[in-house]
Amino acid sequence: xxxxxxxxxxxxxxxxxxxxxxxxxxxxxxxxxxxxxxxxxxxxxxxxxxxxxxxxxxxxxxxxxxxxxxxxxxxxxxxxxxxxxxxxxxxxxxxxxxxxxxxxxxxxxxxxxxxxxxxxxxxxxxxxxxxxxxxxxxxxxxxxxxxxxxxxxxxxxxxxxxxxxxxxxxxxxxxxxxxxxxxxxxxxxxxxxxxxxxxxxxxxxxxxxxxxxxxxxxxxxxxxxxxxxxxxxxxxxxxxxxxxxxxxxxxxxxxxxxxxxxxxxxxxxxxxxxxxxxxxxxxxxxxxxxxxxxxxxxxxxxxxxxxxxxxxxxxxxxxxxxxxxxxxxxxxxxxxxxxxxxxxxxxxxxxxxxxxxxxxxxxxxxxxxxxxxxxxxxxxxxxxxxxxxxxxxxxxxxxxxxxxxxxxxxxxxxxxxxxxxxxxxxxxxxxxxxxxxxxxxxxxxxxxxxxxxxxxxxxxxxxxxxxxxxxxxxxxxxxxxxxxxxxxxxxxxxxxxxxxxxxxxxxxxxxxxxxxxxxxxxxxxxxxxxxxxxxxxxxxxxxxxxxxxxxxxxxxxxxxxxxxxxxxxxxxxxxxxxxxxxxxxxxxxxxxxxxxxxxxxxxxxxxxxxxxxxxxxxxxxxxxxxxxxxxxxxxxxxxxxxxxxxxxxxxxxxxxxxxxxxxxxxxxxxxxxxxxxxxxxxxxxxxxxxxxxxxxxxxxxxxxxxxxxxxxxxxxxxxxxxxxxxxxxxxxxxxxxxxxxxxxxxxxxxxxxxxxxxxxxxxxxxxxxxxxxxxxxxxxxxxxxxxxxxxxxxxxxxxxxxxxxxxxxxxxxxxxxxxxxxxxxxxxxxxxxxxxxxxxxxxxxxxxxxxxxxxxxxxxxxxxxxxxxxxxxxxxxxxxxxxxxxxxxxxxxxxxxxxxxxxxxxxxxxxxxxxxxxxxxxxxxxxxxxxxxxxxxxxxxxxxxxxxxx
Length: 950
Fold this sequence. Notes:
This protein is α+β, with helices and mostly antiparallel strands. The chain has 16 helices and 54 strands.
């Protein structure tokens, strides 16, 4: 039985993807089982404390991940960096680092009392290696210097022959922007105001060459894409790594480190400025004491600046030495009310100024704007790091600290806050939420992201991203309880964001609770990088909960010093939970923790399941067809008892190839694409033909090959961007995105003749997406202009005759249509007719001539779903749901439901697996395959019938 192809090529409300979701290092590098770090036996759950003079091996490099308890002398004269690299060279048999002077660039040197910490960046043939950092810790006293320990990752297996990319910088930027713009799934929408659709407002900037430490190494161009999401208007700062040979975006993750809520839409960026203090702020009175009322009603003192015009501004120079008042730290709080969040992500809204007053007594307007809390709390966070650890600001060098307060999202409340790499940005809030600077732990959280960026720089994806969030939560909450004189015994002491609400109590308001008891065994959620960046918020309280337990038992002073030392002197960018545990234990020992205190630290991690081998305990209720699928965002297709999927080798070293297998899971997969060094992606099959797209430095080619074997056929090019394709019989359909307009267009090619066309002619502002194909018919979502405004619907094209038929969708009132699927009975689609609900959408079906419409699942009431994408066979329709979320949890992740064609009996859960369930594709009968993230890896799995209630 042939089945329709269901994958989408439009842009989503909330993107999900097929990127791997592995652990630790592997979680970052798109392919799953690439660089899992070994767990030294010394740190196992055996009751042993951290050893002295122990070398902890790394399972994927000859360089040890942690060396502790050393006392090895190095020259006292000269710089710490020279001494560090000299030590690594002298101990080559231990570290296996060839030419440390040439292959390790000094990133940072920190001196705190007698301790010296040197961070070194690995370079291969002069190109930086992502996550390749090594730390050398030393002590200098009484005229002598000794190395006390080392840690990090230096990848010894890199063997790249050339570091000269074949893909131009321009092509890499175009494909990076297209990769961010064209995400799978979601609904084609128009705005409620005027019926228009969003235009792409994204731009890319080249950041240089970077080597991903997969296998022998993958040379990439690092592109940062910024702007406004063309679908939901949210701010975008996406880090995209484009393969230097083929131009395929092999890795992407968000660089916006948010507090964690989902938000409404944001509007356009309105320009940039350099963000400097205006020139008329020549010091008149560098520090003036002002007063204001915080949200909690407390009257407080705030440091202001009186400029030469007599205006009091929210600028704090008080952190500067008395003998040097014109240089050093400055904390400035800007009035960004009404400015779009998208204009503040990696850029600076035009024309904003600090909050200003004619008197030092700041009135109610400053309170309501969130200015008092933001400015006051920024000073408290600065003081915390300075007083406790001697840290000079977020960057350790007293760089300026900027806070932007009051941004909105498409003119609506923006219930979030984020650090964008240069500044803190706080949403205006609305409804139940105050401005997001209203809680000190939010301010502490976002500012700590800045500290992390200038220390371990934990990559904000997967486990390293969850570790990043955990540390931001820990320190943000530690600052909150200290400034608020809250006892650690208070049952609400672990709440974050509990003061943000207008009427709700702390527990009802809080976004996270460090006392939630989350563990790896029952709470870890494997998600894709497009779903919470690989679980950075979802999984963070597992680790932060362990740290908070430790703080409750050891006391704030010792616990904070241990965690800060672990962050600043042990952790490196790709560390996961296991490495994080080892770092904290080693830091505790270095700081002189007693045996009993070390036992407390260890017990805290044990209680949260952060023990060696914890990943193996994650179970599923599905049949695994392929485990550890090493692909990023390319999906899976099925038909005629066969599936087609892209995969790489176990090390993630090879470009993606297309493999064909049986949907039953029996037999061995068969290689279908050419092994030519290019990336072969978006694979699909109807059981007779396999089709895919081949990315190369010169373009994107569409290719096919018979299932029974034979010559690979090139159908032609697909332009500069492609998001998915599908094949059935004699036709291949696909979606391309116009880089100048951001509008999607469905195209098709007849395999036998080579005839090709765009279903909408490529006209602007027409847009088509989310196609499916069967028996020469092509269904797709369509947005088009008429004299009375833009219309939205679902259309079916007969490719042979050119005849088109609109399905029974109210083109004037419907606000969103989603994925289509063709079967013998007609066509399915998703329809969103009510924009006043909480995001539900109906699943509908009709015959090819538009007759006999059926609502399979309703948009409201019992049985309604948050339908996001769908796939169908003649016997069932399987729907991927994606609920809106104010916080991250398992029930907010994409899940699969299945219903019969008539909808009788309602929709049932296909699987009760935790984690992401994405890229579903219907096979024969009720069988459905998808990419599942439950185990922390991306696995191709199946079920032959629904699991029912979960």
